[in-house]
Design a protein that fits this description.
Radius of gyration: 26 Å
Strand order of the largest sheet: 2-1-5-3-4
CATH architecture of the largest domain: 3-Layer(aba) Sandwich
Strand content: 15-25%
Distance between the termini: 71 Å
Helix content: 25-40%
Largest sheet: 5 strands, mixed
CATH class of the largest domain: Alpha Beta
Number of strands: 19
Structural class: alpha/beta
Shape: globular
Length: about 550
Amino acid sequence: MVKEKMAKVMVDGVEYSYPQGTPYRTIAADFQQRFPHDILLVNRDGKLCELHKPLDRDCSLNMITAQDIPGIQTYERSAVFLMLKAFYDVAGRENVERICVAYSLSRALFIRVQGNFVLDQALLDRVEVRMRELSAQALPIEKRSISTDDAIALFQREGLFHKAELLSFRINSHVNVYSLDGFVDYFYGYMVPDTGYIRCFGLELFENGFVLRLPTRADPARLGDFRPARKVFRELYESNLRAEALNISNVADLNTAVSRGNATPVILTYEAMMEKKIGDIAAAIASLRDVRFVMIAGPSSSGKTTFSHRLSTQLRACGLRPHAIATDNYFRNREDTPRDENGQYDFEGLGAMDVEQFNTDMVRLLNGETVELPTYNFKKGVREYNGNFLTLGEGDVLVIEGIHCLNDQFTYALPRESKYKIYISCLTTLNIDDHNRIPSTDARLLRRIERDARTRGYSAQATIKMWPSVRRGEENNIFPFQDSADVIFNSALIYETALLKPYVQPLLFGVPRDSEEYIEAKRLLKFLNYFLPIPADNIPKTSLMREFIGGGCYHA
């Protein structure tokens, strides 16, 4: 009788023994009672593994639920797969021309569809019922490796040409595909083992498409609130139309343009579109005679600094005299800065700003007085006055950049008509393919990794480690006010990930395998593999991307 070969498994510092070949799902079930939500993946010595995988070695395991970033990403991806299968079942595969998972919108995914059917809530209700039927059956989501050539032929037969074209740029000889009750698709990332894990979702008609509502990390058992920022949505939608007008709506389209030597026209076209938008904003400001304060806010790595410079240039072209003010100069002295729940200085909250002094100075300027503006000494942690005097005359406007610029509590003393508020963010609409979206946060993280390395000497590991804290600050202090802006400026450039690839890729390879940040670094490396690189040679010196890769004509 052959003795069963055993493997040692460490979980939370305790050693257990399991037969080799045991699925991770079986092991996860032994620890499920310790977690309030379903275990969706396991982290095996720094490598994410799906639950259908068999145990094949001694290892340490950490359980991943939807309260972990890889877990909620897996849940979202699996819910999309379930929705696609249900939509095809209800509408009829032959009637569906295209289903495009476009972008994230207020704890939901906005989805556009085309085909021989009427998109209404009644249809969506039927699709949702079908999703729940499939979920109740706990049907397996199967993963298998097939040759890349076979995958291309498969997706061409299924009419999923965006996937076939994407895979035509893959160097690997094999790819992994997922199947659910006869429906086959290709996804970037991991899946849950069966449909029974996907229980929290909702479908709702929205604008000219619909949204797939999903839970949040904070409460994976409940749908997140759906409160869409309408202005942001319109900007995303218009950006999407602009990209499609140039025949670039996904990575395969971009790769095709690059491979045919057409990268430069793409670059110059998008730069021209961005410059026109900035010029239009400047013209709108110039037409409003009462505006004296241009307030600019946006999340990290949106390109606020370069945008401010370019807007100032356009304002001068409109006959105005812009003066830049950074709200960072109105930080409270370090000793007066409030602390967070961990006892650390809270530099993100409004309490870190000397709101009273800012409003006093701005009102005096508005009244025609001469004001000495402060400069914040970050090394000493104090505000200093170094003779920087300013008086606003006819045609003078202040271009003010800062995290709280859209929050009226920060500018409470200024008349509304004196303020023109601009929200800037990198709202990417370029997706891997119709079923695999690229989160805007990924685009901003890649920007920040390169800029931090170039200007601050930070490693990619350090940037990835601080990113969750940065995101929390944005959620609290920026996103709630985005729809109060007079205009939304989308700083995303459709070519930027291809441009950043040769800069960021080596930095990500430097993240140690035994670090907590390695999983995220590996995910980003896989993501970058989809792109053909674009050299920086033809990127204009005024480009917003120069803020991140260097070589620009602005001090950014």
